[in-house]
């Protein structure tokens, strides 16, 4: 009984930094395909869960998708690129603006994630998701809803700035510090 | 609050639409959407509505359930209607106050956009209402493989795992939220910026726990000799039935009719 209690105590006292290094710090080895796959799937699951849980503000021209803060992840974790694509696909399948949103929304997220991965300066990392989504989702909403492109693009862009810069950038700096 | 969220909203049943192959439903939805966006006259929606009514009847999904699915989108629809009313000035001006004016063309365009959006959302909802998420993923994987999209199996597997873990992560989010509130975190007060920033202490533990789960899951998969899509067999094989052929023919005829009407017949112009 005593031994059991001790094990529990040791787990509780494990420093947070050590825990983070264990769970996130190491990149999976090239042959560990399943690690890459499951991590990407978890990124997708978090993206979809956050989007669907906050549904009224996650879709439409006046959107503030909290999950878009995760678009900074590809800069640190390459597996987040397919993860974000699949997450967006799942989220849009179960609550978006129909098939156009499913196709173009997910492709825009994929393009933004690929670009974010190549950017050197951390404060520029949230820029591709802001710009690409403003243009692609703005154009799509303008076509579907019959509204002026500049209006829909500005609305989507503003929402993206909110989620990617206000929420995404602090997240990026924190994760970067932890990874070091 | 968060536990009430359902992903997929599958409506169990044995209707004609339920029994169709998921690939048929995805391809037919795409063809239907092409048809829907080909229509340019409000009056032409009469036959699109009739065709959609047949699809809804064949799905066996009650109208109440369908309407419930549209509920989160009503704000978007009202906004579209109002913005189109004021931003389009064609034909007779019906009302004017300073720079604001409502014209006959604006009203028609607003109604056209809202009807099209409602049809688009309804038919996409029918796909998820009559297909389980797992079957939908299987169908998508097969279509992606046919279209030579790289990593089709991996993407489909990610979708399956994500769908499985969404409820778990929502529960986890709720638990973290309560833990952080107990430590003094405030998610309720403050402006939009303050609320957004307050989410950072929620997201970080969520990532850590999700990545830990991912590593456990990977180990479990490796222990079961998971080696990707190559040589992988399935318990449930997807096979086209006679009903799939009928669905393809019906949607194809609908698309051809819409195109002929738009460019040659012009029934309602």
Describe the structure.
The longest helix of chain A has 31 residues, at 149-179. With 180 residues, chain A is mainly alpha-helical. Helices cover 73% and strands 0% of the residues of chain A. Chain A is globular, with a radius of gyration of 18 Å. The relative contact order of chain A is 0.13. Chain B has 269 residues and is mainly α. Chain B has helices spanning 16-19, 22-38, 45-59, 63-70, 74-87, 104-130, 133-146, 152-182, 192-198, 200-223, 242-265; strands at residues 93-97, 100-103. Chain B has a two-stranded antiparallel sheet with strand order 1-2. In chain B, β1 and β2 form a beta hairpin. In chain B, α5 (74-87) packs antiparallel against α6 (104-130) and α7 (133-146) packs across α8 (152-182). The longest helix of chain B has 31 residues, at 152-182. The chains are: A mainly alpha (180), B mainly alpha (269).
> What percent strand of chain A?
under 5%
Shape of chain A: globular
- The helix/strand series of chain A, from N terminus to C terminus, equals HHHHHHHH
Low-confidence stretches of chain A: 1-13
- Strand order, main sheet of chain B: write it out: 1-2
Distance between the termini of chain A: 38 Å
Helix content of chain B: 55-70%
Secondary-structure element string of chain B:
HHHHHEEHHHHHH
Q: What percentage of the residues of chain B does DSSP assign to strands (E)? A: under 5%
Number of helices of chain A: 8
Oligomer: heterodimer
Number of strands of chain A: 0
Q: Report the sheet with the most strands of chain A, covering strand number, pairing sense and barrel closure.
A: none
Structure described in brief:
Chain A has 180 residues and is an all-alpha fold. Chain A is 73% helix and 0% strand. Chain B is mostly helical.
List the helices and strands and how they pair.
The complex is a heterodimer of chains A (180) and B (269).
Chain A: H1 2-13, H2 16-25, H3 33-53, H4 55-58, H5 80-93, H6 99-118, H7 127-145, H8 149-179
Chain B: H1 16-19, H2 22-38, H3 45-59, H4 63-70, H5 74-87, E1 93-97, E2 100-103, H6 104-130, H7 133-146, H8 152-182, H9 192-198, H10 200-223, H11 242-265
Antiparallel strand pairs in B: 1-2
Helix pairs in contact in B: 2-6, 2-11, 3-6, 4-6, 5-6, 7-8, 8-10
């Amino acid at each position: 009984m005593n031994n059991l209690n001790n094990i529990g105590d040791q787990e509780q006292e494990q420093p947070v930094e050590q825990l983070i290094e264990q769970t996130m710090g190491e990149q999976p080895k090239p042959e560990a395909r399943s690690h890459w796959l499951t991590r990407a799937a978890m990124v997708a699951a978090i993206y979809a869960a956050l989007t669907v849980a906050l549904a009224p503000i996650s879709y439409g021209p006046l959107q503030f998708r909290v999950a878009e803060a995760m678009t900074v992840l590809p800069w640190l974790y390459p597996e987040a690129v397919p993860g974000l694509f699949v997450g967006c696909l799942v989220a849009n399948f179960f609550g978006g603006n129909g098939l156009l949103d499913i196709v173009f929304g997910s492709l825009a997220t994929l393009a933004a994630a690929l670009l974010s991965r190549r950017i050197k300066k951390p404060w520029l990392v949230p820029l591709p998701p802001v710009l690409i989504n403003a243009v692609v989702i703005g154009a799509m909403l303008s076509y579907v809803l019959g509204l002026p492109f500049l209006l829909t693009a500005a609305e989507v862009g503003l929402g993206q700035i909110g989620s990617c810069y206000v929420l995404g950038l602090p997240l990026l700096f924190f994760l970067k510090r932890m990874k070091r | 609050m968060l536990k009430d969220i359902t992903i997929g909203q599958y409506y169990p049943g044995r209707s004609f639409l339920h029994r169709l192959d998921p690939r048929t439903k995805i391809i037919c939805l795409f063809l239907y959407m092409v048809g829907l966006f080909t229509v340019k006259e409000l009056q032409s929606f009469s036959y699109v509505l009739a065709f959609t009514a047949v699809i809804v009847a064949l799905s066996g999904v009650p109208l109440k359930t369908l309407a419930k699915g549209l509920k989160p989108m009503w704000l978007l629809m009202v906004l579209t209607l109002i913005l189109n009313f004021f931003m389009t000035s064609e034909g007779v001006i019906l009302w004017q106050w300073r720079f604001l004016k409502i014209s006959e063309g604006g009203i028609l365009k607003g109604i056209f956009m809202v009807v099209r959006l409602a049809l688009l959302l309804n038919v996409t909802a029918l796909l998820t209402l009559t297909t389980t998420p797992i079957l939908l993923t299987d169908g998508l994987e097969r279509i992606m493989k046919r279209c030579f999209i790289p990593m089709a199996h991996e993407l489909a597997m990610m979708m399956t795992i994500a769908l499985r873990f969404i409820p778990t992560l929502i529960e986890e989010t709720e638990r973290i939220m309560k833990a952080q509130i107990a430590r003094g975190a405030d998610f309720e007060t403050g402006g939009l910026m303050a609320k957004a920033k307050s989410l950072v202490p929620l997201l970080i533990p969520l990532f850590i726990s999700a990545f830990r789960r991912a590593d456990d899951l990977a180990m479990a998969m490796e222990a079961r000799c998971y080696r990707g899509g190559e040589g992988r067999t399935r318990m449930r094989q997807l096979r086209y039935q006679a009903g799939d052929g009928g669905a393809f023919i019906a949607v194809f005829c609908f698309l051809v009719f819409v195109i002929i009407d738009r460019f040659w017949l012009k029934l309602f112009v």
